[in-house]
Specification:
Helix 2 packs across helix 5. The protein is an all-alpha fold and 343 residues long. Helix content is 80%, strand content 2%. Among the domains are: 77 residues; 102 residues, no CATH class. A two-stranded antiparallel sheet has the order 1-2. About 4% of the residues have low confidence. It is rod-shaped. The longest helix is centred in the middle third of the chain and has 120 residues. The chain is built from twelve helices and two strands; from the N terminus they run H-H-H-H-H-H-H-H-H-H-E-E-H-H. Keywords: Coiled coil, Membrane, Transmembrane, Transmembrane helix.
């Protein structure tokens, strides 16, 4: 805490002494009371401390304190005004000399290579600013060159990519041309096919009309024949077998085939299938029920040449008998008798 007081005391003294007024006041007091100061700091052997005290008492006894203070203050203000006036005058003289007289003298006496300092400073400042701007521009140029290099690289890559795409487009165009050619050929073939199809439809329609007409004519012919036969059988009142003069053996076979068809399913139709296989009209392999074959053998239609060996299906040991061949070849007549219930 004592250090704070001491520091504050010295700071106060420093502020007062550095203040122009107090400094001037102290200076004036020292000048007007120089003998007092001299006596205080005089350390001669013949001058004792008591002598100094008596001198100080007598010195201030002859003077009025407030008058002395007032005189010192007035003189201090006067000295301050005088000193500041001198400072202003000296600064004015210096400025006029530096900025008017010396430049004019330099213009007339010094070489033209020498310039004014202010102009020099201005030019130097401008030059430094230009240098800074040039450095900034150089940095920008470097940055732009780097960007330009990068853009060139990208441009090369884009160019290569575009060339690749152009080649792909050309290849697709070539393929497209080939495809269009194939499509054109296909359309041409399709047109020809459509024309052939249309012609075939016309031919088919004509064929259908012809078939319908032939079927109608055939139906009319069948009706005419069957009507004629019915009238003839009815008129003659004789047996159909007598009319056609059919042998008795064949009559019996016709009757047995038709009669057994009611007991054995499709007995007569199976016989004609067997006949086609045995005569070679049908090359397809087939297998028939054995008791049908046995029945045909019993009727004398089929013969077994296998020395009494049991036949298997349609083996190579079977063949049509003479009676069986006659019945097989007269299937149409059998079917006609069957249809008109003559059998």
């Amino acid at each position: 805490m004592s250090n704070d007081y001491i520091s504050s005391f010295f700071d106060n003294i420093k502020d007062k002494t550095t203040n122009p007024f107090f400094g001037t006041l102290i200076f004036v007091w020292l000048v007007r009371n120089w003998d007092l100061v001299y006596t205080i700091f005089n350390f001669d052997s013949d001058c004792t401390l008591l002598d100094k005290k008596d001198f100080i008492r007598n010195y201030y006894a002859e003077k009025v304190a407030w008058q002395e203070i007032g005189y010192n203050i007035i003189i201090a203000f006067g000295v301050m005004l005088l000193s500041y006036g001198l400072i202003i005058i000296s600064r004015l003289v210096v400025n006029v000399t530096n900025h008017n007289i010396i430049p004019r003298m330099n213009e007339k006496t010094v070489s033209k290579l020498v310039v004014n300092k202010n102009r020099f400073e201005t030019v130097k400042k401008t030059r430094d600013e230009y240098f800074i701007r040039i450095q900034e521009i150089e940095e920008q140029v470097v940055t732009l060159e780097q960007k330009n290099t990068l853009l060139k690289k990208q441009n090369i890559e884009d160019t290569e990519r575009i060339n690749g795409l152009n080649k792909t487009i050309e290849r697709h165009e070539s393929n497209s041309i080939e495809s269009m050619s194939k499509i054109s050929d296909f359309k041409s073939k399709l047109d020809d096919t459509e024309k052939d199809l249309a012609f075939s439809k016309i031919v088919l329609l004509k064929s259908e009309e012809t078939i319908k007409k032939n079927n109608k004519d055939l139906t009319d012919l069948y009706n005419l024949i069957f009507g004629f036969l019915d009238q003839k059988f009815e008129t003659l009142k004789v047996s159909p077998y007598q009319e056609f003069d059919i042998p008795l053996e064949i009559k019996d076979v016709y009757s047995n085939l038709h009669k057994n068809s009611s007991d054995l399913q499709d007995f007569d139709a199976v016989f004609f299938d067997v006949g086609r296989h045995l005569t070679g009209e049908t090359k397809d392999r087939a297998s028939f029920i054995s008791h049908y074959i046995d029945k045909y053998i019993d009727l004398g239609l089929v013969a077994n040449n296998g020395k009494n060996e049991k036949h298997k299906g349609l083996g190579g040991n079977l063949e049509l008998t003479a009676l069986g061949s006659i019945v097989f070849n007269s299937q149409e007549l059998y079917e006609l008798f069957k249809e008109f219930n003559i059998i």
